[in-house]
Amino acid sequence: MGQPLPKPEPLRLGVLLSGGGRTLFNILNEIRQGRLDAEVVVVIASRPCAGIERCRAAGLDVHLVPFKQMPDIPAYSRRIAELLDAARTGLVLQAGFLSPWIIPPQYRGRVMNIHPALLPGFGGHGMFGHHVHEAVLAAGCKVSGCTVHFVTNEYDRGPIILQRTAPVLEGDTPEALADRVFQEELLAMPQAIRLFAEGRLHIEGDVVRVR
Fold first, then answer.
1. How many CA atoms within 13 Å lie on the side-chain side of 199?
2. Is 115 one of the catalytic residues?
3. Which pTM does this prediction carry?
């Protein structure tokens, strides 16, 4: 009898965050529940935030790289890439990451972001957190949702992987809409990671094909 084939290594995830880490801990829960064959190998925070201590308490490898203390965006980007490379990162997740960085060649097509609206609407500079939901309500939209997309060096313009929708209700507040959209985010990001890990995502120009 031949030797059994080795089990494929779990997908090695690097996570970039700037806040409390809700998206990251959802991913960790999916891993613990056996629904995601992945491992978080490095966490990089762009500023002091609640997510740092939560991640350290969970035994994760956490690095604080303060954006405001770096001389410029290229230097900041190089430091992030160094940490990702050292951890042999297979896929990078931006989980509430608010600092700009330049995606180096080795990570093109390997950085995902989740945005709390249906891109290409309500994206771009300044469109994060409550600002997004306030803009959706001000526009009178009847449907909102979230978008998982590959990150490029053009803000919020990378190829869309998947989207999930959430209704906008009469009398909604930005906070209520944010909570409803976040419930969809909890499903969307793990789904996108699974598709990547299964090799089913193919970028053709500006479009992601799921095979």
1. 1
2. yes
3. 0.93
